[in-house]
Amino acid sequence: MSVRIMCAVSSMLLTLAACRAAQGPLVEITASNGAESDRSGPLCDWASLGSDGCNGKRVQIKARASEHIHQHPVLSRELRQSYWDTDRWQLIFLSAESLDCQDHITAIGILRARVGPCDPNAHNKNQYCGTALEVQSYECR
User: Fold this and answer.
1) What's the pLDDT tens digit per position in 48-106?
2) Which strands sit side by side in the sheet containing 26-31, from one edge to the other?
3) Using one digit for the tens of pLDDT, what is the confidence trace for 28-46?
4) Which burial class, exposed, middle or buried, applies to 124 when counting CB atoms under 10 A from its CB (0-12, 13-18, 19+)?
5) CA–CA separation, 80 vs 96, rounded Å?
6) What is the bridge-based pairing of β-strands 26-31 and 2-9?
7) Which conformational region is residue 56 in: left (phi greater than 0), alpha (psi within -120 to 50 degrees), or beta?
8) 3-state SS of the chain?
9) For residue 127, how many other CB atoms are within 10 A of its CB?
10) Nearest-5° angle of CA 113, CA 91, CA 25?
């Protein structure tokens, strides 16, 4: 497991010095290093337990391509970021390659329940808090 700390200010990633100067919030992005324990084993029941109950665990999510993309923070410069709708809400999918599904997708990966600034006391964009999936495998459907 590797951890990167990034700064999210106005949906941009900045250097640590620039982040401190802008008084921006730091965002922790944890990425799998390909360890077998991260890629196998049981899936968390996201439908029953929700995002908080499955945070940091492997889940399977069925979603459709977003037609109207909501405002989201940029989470990584190394990974591709795409947006998918479920019956509950819109999720950010992070993947090494483009997810070229035209309509629907079934993806398995590690769920991150709280990404973005997530500052409930902010009266600006820093209030936003989203949910992301670090995609390990997917299938177009």
Assistant:
1) 888 889 999 999 999 999 988 777 777 888 889 998 999 878 899 999 999 989 899 99
2) 12-14, 2-9, 26-31
3) 333 333 333 345 678 999 8
4) exposed
5) 6
6) antiparallel
7) left
8) CEEEEEEEECCEEECHHHHHHHCCCEEEEEECCCCHHHHCCCCCCHHHHHHHHHCCCEEEEEEEECCCCCCCCCCCCCCEEEEEECCCCEEEEEECCCCCCCCEEEEEEEEEEEECCCCCCCCCHHHCCEEEEEEEEEEEC
9) 13
10) 55
In angstroms, the CA 68 to CA 95 distance is 20
Token pair 């990404």 in the structure block, residue: 115
What's the whole-model pTM score? Answer: 0.67
